[in-house]
């Protein structure tokens, strides 16, 4: 999980990342892919590959991005994303090997090898070494290299020194879906929204695997095994929130009882490209709060990308623009942070990657209270769950 210097060149750094994807592999061998492309897996939209990859980058260039001042805090995650996206073209990709009979249910295959379980075991080892885990779902118009670059940049930003708990580490798990990545405004958006809907079911399948793995860990802990003291978190950006919206429908269908399983400590909805009323009771994400101890929405009234979603795509008002349509009806654990004052004219849509917004996310991951002096957000008078970044 942690970065390391290369043997041949100490000025180069190797960054590692866990991933899961329902993209189709490119190359003759799925276990040695060149990359993952714009289409669903040949085994179906819900088929998942789990793996580990490593990217080599210029250590000094990474350090410059982390030290850069954006005008709204330290750390330029956008520049770091561009740097690591270029480096991702040469990523060394290692899928977790599997041996599964596709014609039989997973429960009936005692000797099967599952890539998911192998990755979860490695993540558990990281967590026992005091590392939280953040699952990251990217948004619209993101190809494989950009997905890897943004996930590595997010991991590096959230694992940097000088913010939060210095003893706490973080590993990011990228869920990358076949976002078009072609930058054709009127074609790519419609295509990506359709693919995001289908990918939601694949993402749900992964989350249900996490649920079952955590249940098995709990059983072992109650039997005298070692419990893990670290937390799982989820961050969805832009249309990645629509992936999550569709995942919730599938999780409900496979969850006994009336409530969703508590999987995460925090869920972060960043620039969410979903309807402004989606978190209200009875709506598509009205029970999202059951998945986590806390849900935080980051929005920006000047988000140009979401204005395009509003007006040119015929969508209703976006949650990521002005926040929830009716904040008063949302559960107490749903917090909203208006970032408009600090991101206007800066990074309108990916502001979670840099500066003070990134700091605020990291402080939540590290367990800082909502009104801790380390934060720069301010609560709106008379609104217990509404905040601004002044």
What does this structure look like?
By secondary structure, the protein is of the alpha/beta class. Helix content is 33%, strand content 21%. It contains 10 helices and 14 strands. The chain has helices at residues 59-67, 77-87, 115-128, 144-158, 185-222, 240-253, 304-311, 319-322, 340-343, 355-365, and strands at residues 4-5, 12-21, 23-26, 35-40, 49-58, 92-95, 131-137, 169-176, 232-237, 264-270, 292-299, 334-338, 378-379, 386-388. The strands form 2 sheets. Strands 1, 2, 5, 6, 7, 8, 9, 10, 11, 12, 13 and 14 form a 12-stranded mixed beta sheet that branches. Strands 3-4 form a two-stranded antiparallel ribbon. The radius of gyration is 20 Å and the shape is globular.
